Amino acid sequence: MTDLLQLLFAGLSQGAVYALVAIGFVAIFTVSGVINLAQGEFAALAGLVAISAVGSGLPLLAAVVLAVVSVALVAVIMERLVIFPVKRMTTLVSLILTLGVSTGLKALMLLVYGPNAEGLTPLTPGGFSVAGVSIRYQELWILLIAGIVSLAVYWFYERTLAGKSLRACAEQPVAARLVGISLTKASLISFLIAGTVGAIAGVLASPIFFTSWESGLTLGLKGFVAATLGGLISVRGAVLGGLLLGVLETLTAGYISTGLRDAVAFLLLIIVLVARPAGIFGRSAEARV
Amino acid sequence: MSLEVRGLHAGYGRLAVLHGIDLSAGEGELVAVIGANGAGKTTLLRALSGLLPVTAGTVHLAGTDVTGYGPEKLARTGLAHVPENRLVFPSLSVADNLVLGGYTRRRGPASARAEARDRAMALFPRLEPRLEQAAGTLSGGEQQMLAIARGLMAQPRVLVLDEPSVGLAPRLVGEIFSALGQLRDDGLTLVVVEQNARAAFAVADRVSVMDRGRVVLEGDPAALSTDPRVSGGFLGGGFAADADADAAPAAEAPGGTPVVPRSGSGATRATERT
Fold first, then answer.
1. Is A182 within 8 Å of B83 when comparing Cβ atoms?
2. pTM value?
3. Which of A216, A224, A235, A236 is nearest to A272 (CA)?
4. Domains of chain A, start order
5. Any stretches that span the bilayer, and where are they (chain A) (predicted)?
6. pLDDT in tens, B61-117
7. Taking the mean position of all CA atoms in its chain, how far away is CA B60?
8. Contact, B190 vs B25, CB < 8 A?
9. Chains A & B: contacts with CB separation below 8 Å
10. Rounded to 5 degrees, what angle do the CA atoms A171, A173, A175 make?
């Protein structure tokens, strides 16, 4: 029982990180049909920026803010340079373009930060133990901040005019233009959101899961699987998908084999794509974001 | 003139569809543009609202040269386009669809927005009890009403509508067109593109008949409706064909299914017709 609780807790905090990465995929995909393969790199880059900023003497919080802001900026620049100029964007074209950006970012990170994996200083070091379940403070931070960020993103799409205008672009781009919403601005905002949530995921995860130039690959793929579980068009689905994936992974690692941990995500992806391509929490295909 | 189009040429890439369209509509005038499928009616509206680039000619809106304006800027200047197939935002509530209709006026006075909304509600009281409902759950007729109401929320000087009668039962067509007549009486300028010539003739002040990218006839609806060229040639079967269309049960079941076709994700979801 204690084992199960321990695994569940670890799975949820891991899943919360996936959920944030997944939100980034959803934010971009709904607006422009772009699947952003550089989403994981946003997280890795944020982790590395924060680590090196702390290393050069910046206080932890300042380093985290610097990392999130600079990665959000990278995402916005990426949109203007790579996505915006393409006249007729299709999902396939977007895969190739964003794979290029992902590769470029990885090379850049390797060049600047070197090949070693490091962990960011935790927001609160140490941990405690309840009923035999050991909990690190950083894991609580992950759950808390990921929860707040997810709710904020959800609120943005459901309650604000800007959020609703992004949903309008996702659902009926022509009608959105006719009521005066700029699709190019919407795409830019979607990248800003994706960069920000991806960066937050990166700095939250780094103290526990460590960050290297290539950690974006796995994180990005897991985030993509989580988003797909939710149908790729729903923030709620992405969050649930992330948590589910995290829990299933740690349960597999704990009860079956650590080696199978990463296989879970892809097994799940195949099952969902074959059996329920609209996602397992799918409301209807109509309801986007 | 609220809307003045001179020598308008437009098309899709190398395919020229419009060959010098002249069209004008004064304040408080309802102009119907009719023509068979493929005459270029939808292309004309797409060019007017900036969805398609104008390759030659000019468009003036209330005296301002708006040729070459994009759709966002045109919406702000005072042209609202109610697109073909309604294109409401399906997962958003009716109220949110209306709010987004007023997107270009979001920094304007709240009283003007409230007034636009009250007028739209008075015009289509059916929408009032459905404000919190997702727009995709409305029937085809209600979606058309919502699409028009959304256009009105932009507080336009000129409202252009693309086939508002498509797929609707005759009773609803009548309801929609009498609402358009009421808007005209309130002083709005309307350009309505229609295949349903009978419905359009009933309310129009003037009619332009399009054929293969040109305006071939223009005039008073009473005179044109008896013109053999209209009933025979340019409508591809004309009034007789419309009678058949009216007889067919349209996608307007009670509590019915939405008739807006949904296509997959991806960048191009526009319904492109000529």
1. no
2. 0.86
3. A224
4. 2-115+126-275 (1.10.3470)
5. 16-38, 44-77, 89-113, 140-157, 186-209, 229-251, 263-282
6. 999 999 999 999 999 999 999 999 999 999 999 999 999 999 999 999 999 999 999
7. 18
8. yes
9. 96
10. 95
